[in-house]
Recover the amino acids of this structure.
């Protein structure tokens, strides 16, 4: 299950909650499932660890896909690469990070 790999921050009690769903638009209801924000006008904080790596002398490629289904005028999403020392349950907007894009 996705919730075993991904950790939702508990830094703020009013962070929005994530759900696993294919959303409103999909080709296959099971195969197209992904993690989705479930509440409008909320901040979200979700992280997952991965094995240490080095891209020394190699290009580093980071990619993510977003499917906007809400009718809101503002908002956005981004990805941050954090150092291994990140306390995932206390992750917040001021947590130290190495790379940010989105």
């Amino acid at each position: 299950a996705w919730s075993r790999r991904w950790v939702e921050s508990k830094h703020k009690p009013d962070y929005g909650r994530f759900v696993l769903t294919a959303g409103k638009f999909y080709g296959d209801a099971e195969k197209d499932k992904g993690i989705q924000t479930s509440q409008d006008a909320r901040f979200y904080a979700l992280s997952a660890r991965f094995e240490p790596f080095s891209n020394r002398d190699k290009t580093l490629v980071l990619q993510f896909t977003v499917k906007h289904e809400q009718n809101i005028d503002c908002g956005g999403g981004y990805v941050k690469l954090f150092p291994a020392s990140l306390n995932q349950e206390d992750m917040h907007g001021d947590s130290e990070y190495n790379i940010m894009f989105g």
